[in-house]
Every structure is written in structure tokens, then in C-alpha cells.
Amino acid sequence: MRTIQALFLWESNPVFSEYVLGRSSLPLEPKQLGLWPSNKGSKLGGDCDPHKQHLFDWSKDQLKKDWPSLEMRHKSNPPVPRIDNLRFWGEQWVKHGTCSVSMLDQYEYFSLALKLYNGINLREMLRKESVIPRGTLVARQAIFDAIRKHMKCKPQIRCQEIQNQYYLYEIRFCLTASKDPKFIDCNTEFVGCSINPEVYF
User: Fold this and answer.
1) Which CATH number fits domain 3-200: 3.90.380.10, 3.90.730.10, 2.160.20.80, 3.40.50.720?
2) pLDDT at position 117
3) Where are the domains of the chain?
4) Do the beta carbons of residue 73 and residue 81 sit within 8 Å?
5) Could you tell me which PANTHER family the record lists for this protein (predicted)?
6) DSSP state letters, 136-156
7) Rounded to 5 degrees, what angle do the CA atoms 184, 40, 99 make?
8) φ/ψ of residue 182, rounded to 5
9) pLDDT given at position 160
């Protein structure tokens, strides 16, 4: 394992929320999406030990608040989660957490994910640079520069195309692979974004 990526899903746009998550309204806050160790050079690894499926019974209140299962079953009324939280966390552990077992046990993996999420106030750092989510077009470079200024590292901005429009999808941070990871520059600054310098945000 050489690096770790912390992923944040930006929920602010109702069009994106409906098409990607299957739900029409979400709070205007970024949510924890994942903590993905890489054990294959620059590529993200997964399913390193599919036999380690047991999720230890420790307090899950904070996970429920900060790392819930967001994806809904499409066309369900009222909206119903695709999978419940416990199964979602189990999937995250099996697919990504097991790639960190040489360094982080299960408790440390989830604790690190929550520590990173609660230590990165994306909404506030963007607000300080007058980058406010309103569901309108925003220069993606402005989003990148605002985050870089406050985090002192290059994030990765990921876009999603929906009906010929590009929406902010994820904000990723790259970290060293250790029990006390440090933020480092991501190699790629923009992924899935059009040549148009603006994205809906």
C-alpha cells in the first residue's frame, strides 16, 4: 500500500442527486464517500481479502452520522436505501479496508475515515474564498484553488456528466500510507470534467 485517498461526495445539486443517488433532496454538505488504500502503484486496490467480512461490534453512531449509505433505490417512493448502513460499511471494509490490514486494523480504518472527514471542513474553506454552492456554474479552478490554499496540497476534482452538463461529483485528497497519514498532492487535478472551465456546483 503506497497511498490513501479520502473521498468526499458533494450532495448540493438536486439534479446530480436524483440521477446518481436516486434521491431528490439532500443537505448542502459534502459527505464522506470512502477511504481507499492503494496497493497497486498509482491504482486503487480493492477486495484484498474477501474472507475478512466480519464487521466488529463497536459504536456506529458516528459512522451513521458522517458516513451513511447514501444511494437510494431508483423510483422508490418513499426513498429507500439501496443497502442499509451496516451492509454498506461491510462493503467498504471488504473492498477497501482489507487493503490496509498490514497497517490499519478495522477499528483504526474506520476511525481514520471519521477523523479525516471531521477534520476537513470543505464548505467553510470554500465559503472563505467566496465559492458558494448554489446549483449554478462555477469555475472548477476556483474550487481547486480554494481547497489547495487551505489544505496546502492539490486535491482531485471529479466531475459527472448528466444530460450534457457537468456537475461537481467528488473531491478527493491523497495521503501517505501510514497510521498517521500526511496530505500530499494528488497526481491528477481534474477527472471526468469537460474542457469547459465551469461545472455546476
Assistant:
1) 3.90.730.10
2) 85
3) 3-200
4) yes
5) RIBONUCLEASE 3, RIBONUCLEASE T2
6) SEEEHHHHHHHHHHHHSS--E
7) 85
8) -115, 145
9) 85
Buried-exposed string 142-153: b where 16+ CB fall within 10 A, e elsewhere: bbbebbeebeee
Amino acid in the structure at residue 168: L
Q: To which residue does cell 449554478 refer?
A: 136
Cα(22)–Cα(145) distance, integer angstroms: 31
Q: What is the 3-state secondary structure (H, E, C) of 3-22?
A: EEEEEEEECCCHHHHHHHHC
Calpha distance 29→198 (Å, rounded):
20
Contact 69, 82 (CB under 8 A): yes
Query: Considering the entire predicted model, what is its pTM?
Result: 0.78
How many residues appear in the chain? Answer: 201
| Grid cell 460499511 in the structure block, residue | 89
- The pLDDT of residue 158 is 92
Amino acid at 134: R
Query: Alpha helix (H) ranges present in the chain?
Result: 14-16, 61-66, 85-95, 106-119, 122-128, 140-151
Burial of residue 42 (number of CB atoms within 10 Å: 0-12, 13-18, 19+)? exposed
What's the average pLDDT block by block, 10 residues per block, for the chain (201 residues)?
Answer: 76 54 52 67 51 59 78 55 77 84 83 87 92 88 97 94 85 89 94 89 84
Residues 6+ apart with CB under 8 A from 179: 103, 104, 108
